[in-house]
Amino acid sequence: YLFPNCFKYLILGGGVAAGYAAREFSKRGVKPGELGIISEESVAPYERPALSKGYLFPRNPSRLPQFHVCVGSGGERLGLNWYEEKGIELILNTKIVKTDLKSKTLTSEDGSVFKFGTLIIATGSGVVKLSDFGVKGDQAKNVLYLRDVKDADKVVEAMKAKKNGKAVVVGGGYIGLEVGAVLRQNNLNVTMVYPGHWCMSRLFTKEIAEFYERYYTSKGIKLVKETSVIELEADPNGEVKKVKLKNGRELEADVVVVGVGARPATGLFQGQLEMNKGGIKTDGLFKTSVNDVYAIGDVAWFPMKIYNERRRVEHVDHARKSAMKAVEAIMEQEKVVEVYDYLPYFYSRVFDLSWQFYGDNVGERTVMFGNRNLVVKKPKFGCYWIKDGKIMGAFLEGGDSEENKAMQNLAWNQPKVDDLRELEDKGLSFAFNY
Ligand code: FAD
């Protein structure tokens, strides 16, 4: 591998999974010159979740290099010099536009060709745009999406330029809720619009959502539910000033931030790899249908052992762990490697709230516990999801690390519950039995 642009191991994508993969390669003794990472971004891999949280704080915002991987999991921070020291080639500002898995080559926008022995696909996700649903006007300069540092810089600029102005946040999922909160903390007048009956409807029950919606309202955020945006009307300067809704309402806006979902960035591999719903099919070691090609992080459609079905997971914890597992499999070719065994874990932090969820939000019943009263200083409450009499999912707002650990254990162990009243009474303390 002495030729330029030719690597024994090549990672396509320079996000969370790529960064954790690089650390794992290094731990397992990759030699200088063997590993390359190609990224469209201009910076070394970083902890993407910071972009909708600390990066947008009004005071002491996080800035790179503070949140390069692997600080998010309490590890060493891998800045540019770390890659240099290890002889790992970080090829930044390089967008791959063509791939040929037969000839084992990737071609960039400027025509450079990269050759690999083993490829790891870690291209993550791209944002879903309002224009994908036929909504006009989302190219306006004050309509913002959030996926990478460049996007986050635009939000920061807009918050400065539109000081005390009106922000419309489109979407009531993770990004919408986190950005809505932080825009408010920056003193913007925030209205959130989402189509669901309640926020985060893919995870939250009505009762859980009701708490966060009350909290947001108490912070002065207006919530417009059960409707969607049909048009963004720009003024002669090309700035959107009006957001038109399906229910006939019109919202005034100085800035619009959209968080309506993401989709796996796998277009480069269509027709070359087995896929499903845009995800790349892998085995339990993240090997794809083509030899020497692996897929990790958001793009992998992998067997989730605990639930005995294939899933794709768009969360940072899986990006980290899938990366480490794939590299273990690649570097330990001769040895038997245990397949990935993953318990879903999601979290979010907004204002001074913080929740964690472990497991699967499925089943015929949920049991709520704790105090959801906004008057208490630090609300602490949770929810268990019960399927066929077993606890499958565990949610906790305001937990400390021990309590969150107990929830994690519970979701792993899926204990049977005979008496739901007792479960409700015991609440959080029930989790400490496992
Ligand atoms: P990414 O981190 O997205 O990295 C993909 C990389 O590939 C990028 O560098 C991209 O530029 C590069 N790339 C793609 N295509 C090409 C190409 N053709 N050529 C060159 N480079 C390319 N998850 C949580 O669990 N908790 C959170 O609180 C949370 N907050 C989030 C906040 C934001 C704003 C965002 C955007 C995501 C958040 N997530 C969160 C999701 C989490 O960040 C992702 O699941 C995780 O980053 C996925 O890692 P990845 O490496 O698969 O993809």
UniProtKB/TrEMBL annotation:
Transmembrane segments: none annotated. It catalyses: 2 monodehydro-L-ascorbate radical + NADH + H(+) = 2 L-ascorbate + NAD(+). Its cofactor is FAD. Residues 343-431 form the Monodehydroascorbate reductase 3-like C-terminal domain. Keywords: Coiled coil, FAD, Flavoprotein, NAD, Oxidoreductase, Redox-active center. The keyword Glycoprotein does not apply. GO terms for molecular function: monodehydroascorbate reductase (NADH) activity. Signal peptide: none annotated. Residues 8-323 form the FAD/NAD(P)-binding domain. Its EC number is 1.6.5.4. Belongs to the FAD-dependent oxidoreductase family. Catalyzes the conversion of monodehydroascorbate to ascorbate, oxidizing NADH in the process. This is monodehydroascorbate reductase (NADH). It comes from Cucumis sativus. The chain holds residues 110 to 543 of 552 of the full protein.
